[in-house]
Amino acid sequence: MTKKDKKPFNESLAEWKLFVYNPTTGEFLGRTAKSWGLILLFYLVFYGFLAALFTFTMWVMLQTLNDEVPKYRDQIPSPGLMVFPKPFTALEYTISMSDSGSYKAYIEDLTNFLRPYDLEEQKNLTVCPDGVLFEQKGPDYHACQFPVHLLEECSGVQDPDFGYSQGKPCILVKMNRIIGLKPEGEPRIMCVAKDESAAILSTYPHDGVVDLKYFPYYGKKLHVGYLQPVVAVQPVFNSNSTKKETTVECKIDGSPNLKNQDDRDKFLGRVVFKVTVNA
Amino acid sequence: MGKKTPKIYSVELSGTKDIEKKDQGDGKEKYRGLKSNGLECKKNHQKEELKKEVDLDDHKLNNKELENKYGTDIVTGLSSARAAELLARDGDNSLSPPKETPEIIKFLKQMVGGFSILLWIGAVLCWIAYGIQYSNDKSSSLDNVYLGSVLALVVILTGCFAYYQEAKSTNIMASFSKMIPKQALVIRDAEKKIIPAEQLVVGDIVEIKGGDQIPADIRLLSTQGCRVDNSSLTGESEPQSRSCDFTHENPLETKNIAFYSTTCLEGTATGMVINTGDRTIIGQIASLASGVGNEKTPIAIEIEHFVHIVAGVAVSIGILFFIIAVSMKYHVLDSIIFFIGIIVANVPEGLLATVTVALSLTAKRMAKKNCLVKNLEAVETLGSTSIICSDKTGTLTQNRMTVAHLWFDNQIFMADTSEEHSNQMFDQSSGTWASLSRIITLCNRAEFKPGQENVPIMKRVVVGDASETALLKFSEVILGDVMEIRKRNRKVAEIPFNSTNKFQLSIHETDDASDKRFLLVMKGAPERVLEKCRTIMINGQEQPLDKNTADAFHTAYMELGGLGERVLGFCHLYLPADEFPETYSFDIDTMNFPTSNFCFVGLLSMIDPPRSTVPDAVTKCRSAGIKVIMITGDHPITAKAIAKSVGIISANSETVEDIAKRLNIALEQVNKWDAKAAVVTGMELKDMSPEQLDELIANHSEIVFARTSPQQKLIIVESCQRQDAVVAVTGDGVNDSPALKKADIGIAMGIAGSDAAKNAADMVLLDDNFASIVTGVEEGRLIFDNLKKTIAYTLTKNIAELCPFLIYITVGLPLPIGTITILFIDLGTDIIPSIALAYEKAESDIMNRKPRHKKKDRLVNKPLALYSYLHIGLMQSLGAFVVYFAIYAQEGFTPNSLINLRVEWEKDSINDLEDNYGQEWTRYQRKYLEWTGYTAFFTGIMIQQLADLLIRKTRRNSIFQQGLFRNKVIWVGLVSQIIIALILSYGLGSVTALNFTMLRPQYWFVAVPYAILIWVYDEIRKLFIRLYPGSWWDKNMYY
């Protein structure tokens, strides 16, 4: 290296120039035009072949798939729990009663989300027997009705603002859809406010019951019109307390095969979120 | 050594004039480099210093002055107290070992060398990234800290490993420097004491006897028949006599100084220590050697080149994608993480450690074959060697005078000169031989040291000089117990050899009871002996010495002398019983017996014969395209004769002198370049400009340098190196050490070699066998080829590790393979296979091709990089991606849904991400799937690396030609790869930090078609290379 370093700048520049284009041999970047042509042709053919091969193997791989059900579902044995609408900041709802802009988007989201739950919309759906799994053999799969009035205060029927304007925002808690999941027992979503004195939680449907008739789920393609069971939580803040803020912890309860405790997965069968209401 | 005193044995016939001239200039010339200017060498000041130091004048002083100068007493010696004082002042009387780099520096060098610096940067960036994250969000994950720590750990571990390997190979050498402690007999406090030689100080009076090593530079005060062997200093194998007389201005040539580390062969002497330790002449030459810069080994240059390429690629891709990422509106922090990922993916973390292991494996293998490698990197150097400069004495020859030819009855007989001396085939029935053998036996003062009856004759220790030893052993082999014969033929008088007589004479009673006559036997310089003869013995009969027989004698003498052999004449005379009755008292001072009119019996010639393995080794070097040059301090005639007999000058090539002689024209008229061979003396070399020397070396394929000094050896080596040759120098003497150091690889002799030579060398031949060099060349070439394979193997998967990152950044797929997983490939599954490639046998006869060109045949060349990166590497990436896509698709995320999913996928707050089937995934479930993807990608790469390993077994041949099972270690590698992967997936699948999950068995086979493709493709590549050598395909696809 030291020897190279000592090479005068002009010389190395000339060497570079010669490398870029060598007029005597007609070499451009160390190769003649013919050589470049050959090498480019080679790579064109070679990569063309590889691309074709890759496409073919991918095609073969995709043939192993089923349109309706994924081949394996081992990675999601138990559903996660999630809230709706999606908070602007991670799992924190901060609304201000006086500022409709702070919750307008939530209301819109909720309205859109609950539109399929509208009675009109689900009149084609089956009325399923309560409390038992609604197992079907196909080839047509039916979805059960989830009448929106089950959400009572939070159904948006009486209060199109879902309580946001009054400082008692409705938040939906839903269980992740998993194809073929059959909960045992009597699953319900149980929510607790960490600070009981600050807010009282109302849960709809009553006790946060998740009816078994909504299970099992048969997948997006087969189970057309499937309505995911939801539970609404509405914190009603104590008007005396100055700080209208509470942390709500929800978890699936009453079903032995739905996990709600996992060290690594903080959303497996549970969810924690925070609601802050400013005046 | 003074003027070279011609002994009886020194006989040079052809070109006598030339040699005589040289003989006179000899002493001066040999030290030319020491005394005269060191123009040639860059280290001028050092030589100046040397020059100054040599100007000692102790040899000119008389005893009184010496006593005053050193404050000592010749009779009583120093007092112990004074000696201790001086010892404290001057230090030990031992050569200080060459300066070692401190261990900590060596260690740190390993820590920052190669790719380490890149990984350090990566680690630090990781920590910085975490720092920034932490300052923004106290709960940010510790992933970056882990990654940084893992990177640092990787660097430290590989560094420690490389250091350990280095240290292990240096430790073997350490045993060498620990020599058997030497003793010296010293007079202190008027008492004789034996003390360790290290404790000698200037002014000490020491006594030396035959067989001792001179313990320091000594001014001799009294001597009795003292002769020393200066060969380790000058390369001259003839013994030099020593006396207390001041004979020459130059301290190096005067007879009254004996030098440290030379050996006293016979006689006794008392002397005063005038220099100790590093201040001795030997010490100064040794320090000259340490002043010569150590060149970077070719393999070190190659590895550096390779590191530059890979680091260049890594950093430029890293920066390119950093810019792309930033312009794609990624956070700078994320972009930095990408940058780290790209670097980690691009850098073959385990490779340098692998290279070290491969080199040390070869070193071990060579050590078994008696080639001890001091410097690990030197293992390969021999493989790229294009010129070997070999010392003659001790390396090419046995360093032992041996009877080579006999002439009697007008015939030349050949004696067996092999190491064993087993069968002497010449005709021993003639009566002349009986007489000749008797003279050889009786006219000889050498004796076996007692107590060696069970030692093979050739290995017995003899007291006496080289020629007499040769004669003694020769007669012992043929006649049996020589000492007994001598006892039966009692010696009654003797004139020992002296330089004016040039003969040796003794008178014996004979063991023939019926014959009471005395037998006078004589040997000496043939012409001197012949002068004294009147008759000659033919077939046991005395005949008058006429012109014809005299001519026959001269022809034989010329012929033997022309072979570079030392010729001796032998004659005898039975003294008439009437004149010399049994009671006759011979007086050697008055010479009361005949000194002429003898009967000439025969000639006998001796040479230091070449080792029997050398000619074959030289031929092998030749066919391997290596030029062998002989550099010796010996006479040109001897040098040329040996060169011819070992093949350094091949039978049909001529020197300029030979051509002139054949064509009968003057030297000047011969076209210099017609001669293939050249014999150049130190005198001629002195007058040459460096350009002329370069020209000489470039234009002659067979060169012998004779009468050269240590400096000239250095000049020759430098000239070879100017021609881009990789030069190996072999040598044993101290005088070789500067050249050994200067050479790309210095090879010292383990048995005959001096410490200085061993210290300066990179490799030591434990059995002094030149043929071991051939082994070294072979191993060196093999390891170079195998390192190519190892590197190609290792580089390939880097693309498969890099592509995921690039796709991740640009297309937004969930990350296919994580940094930690990459490290598990680089430092886990890939390590044993890449070492296994070091065990691969050669593809073709590597000894039949030319040595690689230092600047053209690189370890990592363009085809290698392109083929590994853009062909096999790309196929691997595709194969691994198929596995990755299969995993995601079969779990619910089809390939098209993955595109641009990255942001949502990685958001911690999204815990209901919907897949193609309407299922929803929490963040952790996605993460787990991502790890399964890592594992899948990992196995994809691993499976294809199996194929990659198999194809890398050969570069040109089909692997079936190479043999699938010849290298068993490859299979160990293959199995280890699978086992490690299985352990990672199934054994450690539950350890979250490692990001491995248990994989369904079928996913292990998804990449198999690609593995087969890789193998088929490479077989096709090799097939075309074999079918169309030199074609476009060959040029672009052969690495």
Compact overview of the structure:
The complex is a heterodimer of chains A (279) and B (1039). Chain A has 279 residues and is α+β, with helices and mostly antiparallel strands. In chain A, 21% of the residues lie in helices and 20% in strands.
Describe this entry's structure for a reader:
The complex is a heterodimer of chains A (279) and B (1039). In chain A, the strands form three sheets. In chain A, strands 3-5-8-7 form a four-stranded antiparallel β-sheet, with no helix packed on it. Chain A has a four-stranded mixed β-sheet with strand order 4-10-9-6, with no helix packed on it. Chain A is 21% helix and 20% strand. Chain A is elongated and about 90 Å long. With 279 residues, chain A is α+β, with helices and mostly antiparallel strands. Chain A has helices at 2-6, 9-20, 33-63, 104-114, and strands at residues 21-22, 27-28, 81-84, 92-96, 171-175, 188-193, 199-204, 230-237, 245-253, 270-278. Chain A has four helices and ten strands; from the N terminus they run ααββαββαββββββ. With 1039 residues, chain B is α+β, with helices and mostly antiparallel strands. Chain B contains 38 helices and 28 strands. In chain B, the strands form five sheets. In chain B, strands 10, 11, 14, 15, 16, 17, 18, 19 and 20 form a nine-stranded mixed β-sheet that branches. In chain B, a hairpin with a 5-residue loop joins strand 27 (913-914) and strand 28. Chain B is elongated and about 135 Å long. Chain B starts with 15 loop residues before the first helix and ends with a helix. The model of chain B is unreliable at 1-53 and 175-180 (pLDDT under 50).
